[in-house]
Every structure is written in structure tokens, then in C-alpha cells.
Amino acid sequence: MKPENKFALTVYLWGAITGVISGALSVQNRAAWILGALMFLITDVFVRAILKDELPEELKGLEGKELRGAILRKAFWGWLLFWLYFTMLVYTVGIDFRPVPYNNQSLLAQMMNST
């Protein structure tokens, strides 16, 4: 597998992990979304721990803060997508969301009343 693909999958995994943590904690405390968003700042630590020496070509040769910044810039949109999706999914399941139809003639109301 290409290093770019491994990098992307690792970022997606970290986004899913932080999303599950953020969503589960948000059920009890709304400020947990902030904690989940702050977990983005340690994305580079997770990526380097998983990939070790298999970074994409554009990241090889960078050290220290330059490498950290490059990883965070490259990972931002992929991480954000997975974090947001899993945060909302886990939060919605956690609060036991039930749709409420406001119109008895709507398709939703008909579907809910037919069961």
C-alpha cells in the first residue's frame, strides 16, 4: 500500500476515534465537543506512532515543528470529516433521539403511526 494511502487511513482512524470520544462525552457535557476538537492537535503524534518511517514523500526530510505543521495541514480536512460524522452519530445515538412529526399528514407521521 502506498504511504499516502496509509497516511490517509491513519488520519481517518484518528478522526473516528476522536469523534467517538467527543460524541460520547457530549451526551453528558456539551463542552466535550471542544475537547474533541482539541484532540486534533495531537494528530501528528498518532500518525507518527502508527506509521513510524512510512510517511508520504512530501513529509520526508522534515523535522520538529515543520513536520508537525505539515502533518496537521495535510490531515485537517480528512480528520474534520470523520470527527464531525462520528461525533454527531454517537451523540445522536447517546441521547436516544426520536423524530417528532409536527404535521399529522406528513410522511414521517404516517410511517410512525403505521407501526
The CA-CA distance between the termini, in Å, is: 48 Å
Give unreliable regions as ranges. Answer: none
Strand percentage, roughly? under 5%
Specify the overall morphology. elongated
The largest pleated sheet is described as: none
Please tally the helical runs, counting DSSP H or I stretches of 4 or more residues: 5
Rg from alpha-carbon coordinates: 19 Å
Number of distinct beta strands:
0
Mean pLDDT: 90
Number of domains: 1
Helix/strand order: HHHHH
Specify the helix fraction band.
55-70%
SS class = mainly alpha
Describe the structure.
Keywords: Membrane, Transmembrane, Transmembrane helix. The chain crosses the membrane at residues 7-25, 31-51, 75-94. This protein has 115 residues and is mainly alpha-helical. Helices cover 68% and strands 0% of the residues. It contains 5 helices and no strands. The protein has helices at 3-26, 32-38, 43-51, 64-94, 107-113. Helix 3 (43-51) crosses helix 4. The mean pLDDT is 90.
Describe the structure using short key phrases.
0% strand, 115 residues, mainly alpha
In short:
This protein is mainly alpha-helical and about 120 residues long. The protein is built from five helices and no strands.
Record the SSE blueprint.
Blueprint: H1 3-26, H2 32-38, H3 43-51, H4 64-94, H5 107-113
Helix pairs in contact: 1-2, 1-3, 1-4, 3-4
